[in-house]
Amino acid sequence: MKLLLIHTGGTIGMVSGPHGLTPQDGVVEAAVLARLAAHIELHQHVFTPLIDSADMGPQHWNAILDVIDAHPNCAVLLTHGTDTMSFTGAALSQALEGLGRHVVLCGSMVPLGAGGDAEGNLDFAIDALSKCADEGVFLSFAGKILPANGLVKHNCFELDAFRATPQDSIAAPKRRRFPDKKLAVVTVTPNLPVVALSAMLKELDGAVLRVFGAGTIMSDASVIAALSEAVQNGVVLRAVSQCEVGNLEPGSYAAGQLLWQSGVQNGGRETPEAALVHLWLN
């Protein structure tokens, strides 16, 4: 078996410093090597410098995809910080759809060597990669292997920090790399100032709209006009629910009809992260 370790950074490989936890070269690499059976051939790619996942973005996803493509016969272990794990999980799941790759993401709430969850998460990830070659992108966390396409970090402190929300099957994306697009997630709130909404949409190529429930929005003519104008100007808008689990259902409520008539796409049961990735890749 050939295993590719891509270490990007994150809590799992940090050590205590004068200003708090900071990434440390060699920590994750040594921990992985110590856990591998003799028959596993290890390849490594370590980000230089290591980054906090708060700085993770499309250019890093492209770099990760390039490394994965350069090692076509390897299963992939990707170590990563937890704060943007859900974005990277969605990004790799969609970009690699249909390519037959097996990727397991791994991170932790407590660094290696600190008596927390890092060792267990890493053991579980390596075991999963060794025993199963199922296509897809997964997360090893808190004794579970979760599909990474719809991750939600639902707890900032507990070791069992992630949930996986069910996602619909998708087709291969139109592109496999992330272009330079100006995208954002916009949450619809009661009494949303239409001036602020319009100003933001004028600066974007696309946006994910987090709407109410099964797909409703306030019956404010100025808000609907702002959305319609943005769509007419080429801004791609994709709606998802503010609920953690569920599905948008156009036509269920009269309060949602104007939303869909304005040209907003239906993101269905997508998480905001998955919907954002969809805008980048399609």
Can you describe this structure in just a few lines?
The protein is α/β, with parallel strands linked by helices and 282 residues long.
What does this structure look like?
With 282 residues, the chain is of the alpha/beta class. The protein has 2 domains: 2-164, L-asparaginase, N-terminal domain (Rossmann fold, 3-Layer(aba) Sandwich); 183-281, Rossmann fold (3-Layer(aba) Sandwich). The protein is 29% helix and 23% strand. The strands form 4 sheets. A 6-stranded mixed beta sheet has the order 4-1-5-6-7-8, with helices on both faces. A 4-stranded parallel beta sheet has the order 11-12-13-14, sandwiched between helices. It has a two-stranded antiparallel ribbon with strand order 2-3. The radius of gyration is 20 Å and the shape is elongated. The chain starts with a strand and ends with a helix. The model has no long low-confidence stretch (mean pLDDT 94).
Topology:
Blueprint (H helix, E strand, L loop, with lengths): L1 E6 L6 E4 L2 E4 L3 H9 L5 E6 L11 H12 L5 E5 L5 H11 L6 E5 L11 H14 L4 E6 L2 E4 L3 E3 L8 E3 L18 E5 L6 H9 L3 E6 L9 H12 L3 E6 L15 H5 L3 E2 L5 H10 L1
Helix pairs in contact: 3-8, 5-6
| Proportion in helices | 25-40%
Helix vs. strand class: alpha/beta
Helical stretch count? Answer: 8
Under CATH at level 1, the class of the largest domain stands as Alpha Beta
Mean pLDDT: 94
Shape: elongated
Q: Any low-confidence stretches, pLDDT <50, length ≥5?
A: none
The largest sheet has its strands arranged as 4-1-5-6-7-8
Compute the CA-based radius of gyration: 20 Å
Stated plainly, the CATH topology of the largest domain is called Rossmann fold
Strand and helix order: EEEHEHEHEHEEEEEHEHEHEH
| N-to-C CA distance | 34 Å
Q: Could you give the count of β-strands?
A: 14
In what range is the share of β-strand residues? Answer: 15-25%
Profile the largest sheet. 6 strands, mixed
- How many domains make up the coordinates? 2
